[in-house]
């Protein structure tokens, strides 16, 4: 599939070539085209969509039940969260890291996850 960012894109206001760059938002790297004269920014449509999807998921609260299995407790992680994670990692590592983050808070990290970088 052809990527618009591989094309020559002119600033619609100045009519001069835009330059490839990137911005970081919430840990996301979004590719942009930037006009060197007026600083107008065009976001990569694919990156922008992923970022928008992320914000929607991030705003949601998931309530899941703790279940006792043997001497451990299990929680079910909603599929949407795993699906989202999978878009950035080709393979899902079945090991995750847990930390007691503070009173009333446990954090979970996917192991082997490279820092999010698309290109
Ligand atoms: Zn411009």
Ranges where pLDDT stays below 50 over 5 or more residues in a row are 115-119
**Ions and ligands:** zinc ion
- Taking all Cα atoms into account, the compactness measure Rg is 20 Å
Strand/helix succession? EEEHEEHEE
State the separation between the terminal residues, measured CA to CA.
15 Å
Envelope shape: elongated
| Structural class by sheet pairing and helices | alpha+beta
Number of helices: 2
Give a nutshell description of this structure.
It is built from two helices and seven strands, in the order βββαββαββ. The protein is of the alpha+beta class and 119 residues long.
Description:
The protein is α+β, with helices and mostly antiparallel strands and 119 residues long. The protein has two domains: 7-50, N-terminal domain of TfIIb, CATH 2.20.25; 66-110. 19% of the residues lie in helices and 32% in strands. The chain contains two helices and seven strands. The chain has helices at 45-59, 79-86, and strands spanning 19-25, 28-34, 41-43, 66-69, 72-75, 96-102, 105-110. The strands form three sheets. A three-stranded antiparallel beta sheet has the order 1-2-3. A two-stranded antiparallel sheet has the order 4-5. A two-stranded antiparallel ribbon has the order 6-7. A hairpin with a 2-residue loop joins strand 4 and strand 5. The longest helix has 15 residues, at 45-59. It starts with 18 loop residues before the first strand and ends in a 9-residue tail after the last strand. Bound molecules: zinc ion (ZN). Zinc ion binds next to loops. Residues 11, 13-14, 35, 37-38, 40 line the site of zinc ion (ZN).
